[in-house]
Automatic annotation (TrEMBL), chain A:
Source organism of the structure: Forsythia ovata
EC numbers, comma separated: 4.1.1.15
InterPro entries: Glutamate_decarboxylase, PyrdxlP-dep_de-COase, PyrdxlP-dep_Trfase, PyrdxlP-dep_Trfase_major
Chain spans, region Disordered: 453-481
Pfam family, one: Pyridoxal_deC
SUPFAM superfamilies recorded: PLP-dependent transferases
Organism lineage string: Eukaryota, Viridiplantae, Streptophyta, Embryophyta, Tracheophyta
Task of the protein: Catalyzes the production of GABA. The calmodulin-binding is calcium-dependent and it is proposed that this may, directly or indirectly, form a calcium regulated control of GABA biosynthesis.
Protein name stated in the entry: Glutamate decarboxylase
Residue ranges the record marks as coiled coil: none
Keywords noted in UniProt: Calmodulin-binding, Decarboxylase, Lyase, Pyridoxal phosphate
UniProtKB/TrEMBL annotation, chain B:
Identification of the protein by name: Glutamate decarboxylase
UniProt organism field: Forsythia ovata
Function: Catalyzes the production of GABA. The calmodulin-binding is calcium-dependent and it is proposed that this may, directly or indirectly, form a calcium regulated control of GABA biosynthesis.
One annotated GO molecular function: calmodulin binding
N6-(pyridoxal phosphate)lysine: residues bearing it: K277
Principal EC category: lyase
SUPFAM superfamilies: PLP-dependent transferases (SSF53383)
Lineage, uppermost ranks: Eukaryota, Viridiplantae, Streptophyta, Embryophyta, Tracheophyta
Amino acid sequence: MVVTTTVSDSDEHLHCTFASRYARTSLPRFKMPEGSMPKEAAYQIVNDELMLDGNPRLNLASFVTTWMEPECDKLIMDSINKNYVDMDEYPVTTELQNRCVNMIAHLFHVPVGDDETAIGVGTVGSSEAIMLAGLAFKRKWQAKRKAQGKPYDKPNIVTGANVQVCWEKFARYFEVELKEVKLKEGYYVMDPVKAVEMVDENTICVAAILGSTLTGEYEDVKHLNELLTEKNKTTGWDTPIHVDAASGGFIAPFLFPELEWDFRLPLVKSINVSGHKYGLVYAGVGWVIWRSKDDLPEELVFHINYLGSDQPTFTLNFSKGSSQIIAQYYQFIRLGFEGYKSIMENCMENAKLLREEIAKTGKFEIVSKDVGVPLVAFALKDGSRYTVFQISESLRRFGWVVPAYTMPPDAEHIAVLRVVIREDFSHSLAERLVSNIQKVLKELDELPPRLSTKAAHVTDVTDETQKGNADQPHPKKSAMETQKEIFNYWRRISDMKTSGVC
Amino acid sequence: MVLSKTSSQSDVSIHSTFASRYVRDSLPRFKIPENSIPKEAASQIINDELMLDGNPRLNLASFVTTWMEPECDKLMMAAINKNYVDMDEYPITTELQNRCVNMIAHLFNAPLGDGEAAVGVGTVGSSEAIMLAGLAFKRKWQNKMKALGKPHDKPNIVTGANVQVCWEKFARYFEVELKEVKLTDGYYVMNPEKAVEMVDENTICVAAILGSTLNGEFEDVKTLNDLLMKKNQETGWDTPIHVDAASGGFIAPFLYPELEWDFRLPLVKSINVSGHKYGLVYAGIGWAIWRNKEDLPEELIFHINYLGADQPTFTLNFSKGSSQVIAQYYQLIRLGYEGYKNIMENCQENAMVLKEGLEKTGRFNIVSKDDGVPLVAFSLKDNSRHTEFEVSDLLRRFGWIVPAYTMPPDAQHVTVLRVVIREDFSRTLAERLVVDIQKVLHELDTLPARVSAKIAATEEHDKNGTVVKKTAIEVQREITTAWMKFVADKKKTNGVC
């Protein structure tokens, strides 16, 4: 919106931000503007646009941390101008990363002595961690096959169809075949028996998930380990296991310490975990830990003379911020084992509360398990009148972001809503969510059922009978009329808007 | 350090942070501590340890931005809990990324119609951007060779030996052969003729660098384009070019707009630039831009149903912070074309001030060119008594971090010191640096030369029995004494900020 009057330059600094000409001219969107503008104007413009983003704390779709203590925010801001990769210039930050690696490795029972250092690295997230782990497996397998004089051009990886997209990315970008164990209704994780059946001599590893994205379930890594150990004995292929503990890695050790899923199982050679999920740090940090030096081929590690000193590096990213690493260390020493345990117990209690209240409505079937990542996944018992997608959209009106999605093959007919319980999802928020869900259900119950092909058939049949009774009036509704009816109904509802948006 | 008396529990909350028991117990370093501690204690402990890190603004080794306006800091902090990948939940942030992509694409003269959307993506840095670009080239080449019925198992990439390590990473992780054009004394970038000679039918692309890490030089992309076009005409291989403009991409358009290096050259199919270098944003953002849709094979793009909505994604990383993308947009609209131009001109001027100051000492050869990334790379005219590495070490005492390193093959005998001029390196800092370098040279002049194999060899050859032959131990003792005297005599300057 360009205003025809122009403001003289000498008065510029007197104008309040919203009256200045900067907030009244439209910014180019595809080209850089020619001239500069005052920082206050730039700040205000960007800030105002961003008001229309969702509220991160009401985003119940994501596992990623959305709240940290102000003391930690301060540490993050102080280190925002430190480029993590300058190890020589920021030795303490590098030391903090190493401490985190060791702490996490010990949490996962890595078989190292008390003074021995663990093998691992901080990454930008579990995607990078998984790619690094996968690369290590691929290279090890290729070296083994070359030594045996066998072909090494068709590596594959065995995993469940419930894997997160980064495994598919890894497979596609690094040219590894993905062999997926299909799910079925009622069983939404990888079946260890089927997985081990799929293993062949070209399998570089079997990937198990601790905390499936879809239902939060922990896969039975112990069972997988046992079956695979047996198969390895008969075949001699020595196929290893990787555990994708992106979500579960910071939950299981605190809530279910007896559950054997980590390096206590001999075939587990590497584990990844997201620091920014239940590691309780903002988005941008993940960790990958290897069992021992042998599991990370030396040829993948670069020793570079960057800016004057030797730095061993095995990451895909190079320059990145240091803030999240420091924040992760802060959380470890601030919370300690008991702190993490308390927080996870709290999450589980809130999940239980939500689950029970949702079940009480009588309209939903709970798809997630009690033991697993603290989330509640639920499907409609009767999906004929309205779908979970409509519930999801309606909840947005109140400010909640609750995703709805269909399961992967072979359970595509199941659609669920999923609420993730993070540290900052309190008891009171859980109660409010339930009350909003009940409101939405009530509204949807009063709505006429969606127009479906079934209804269209009925119309056709009516048409035919019309032909026979040309002079009789008929209440045939055209598609247009039905849509108008629905539209009017929705408009009535939206006029009764509550102040749900925070 | 554990003290034998313990404070009573009831007094815990009134103790000042440094008297509380939390800062008096030593924290485990390899295991997560059993118990929690108050947030003030945790914050103080970490803050104190980090005091021993270098000062980012005195880190003259890095191109990466170390200062932004407080308004932008505020925007970044407000966005720190937004997971960038949740495109459905944060549509504005996604829109801002798209605007940045388009602005940068237009800056690079991408051949787009008005209203046509550019093809590009925000990444965590140039490493990720280069890997994505390389992947696109590799896949395109494989498809082409498959269609021709030719073998497609030995792809290679032609580049100069001056490439940054991420190209070597790309080559090693994605199984592409790296064919490097060696440097020569005095010529520290990729020679276009030699590069084009090395191109064969398995070459997926030729990578040119705009702003070499070592000496800031811009490679001659235009000549490369011309020579490669001729070769393509003869061979029919259609080999493309990628420009690694990590540093230069935000300099050349403002300082040297007539320099043709970008999409104005027809063989350039993709460009990467680091937002966190001269894009003037903190570490953690890069951009990859493709010429048009055909240069990015559709099969590499994932359309995923993540959290309930369709999201096309072509990145290696998934979840990451949104702050840097927002900061990049802030900079682009805050500064605009004239703002960036002013800042780059300022950097150039400060680089000249530093260069002239160094030349005046008469002790250095300037290895960097005037045109290019604003940095000054210099080596000692006479490095027989002391090396550039010693100069670098001594400068640390004043707080300056100035790296010294040897050139890659075939110029390994050349060692340089390099100072990068960033936005926040003011003229006064440049003048102070020159003064401190002069001080360092003065100190080094008073020091005995390093013990070298040469000296030991000459001692051995002296047959005269009365010559005082120094053993290795004696020589070392001599040096140690000289250093101790040196340190004792020196009055400590308050150079460390």
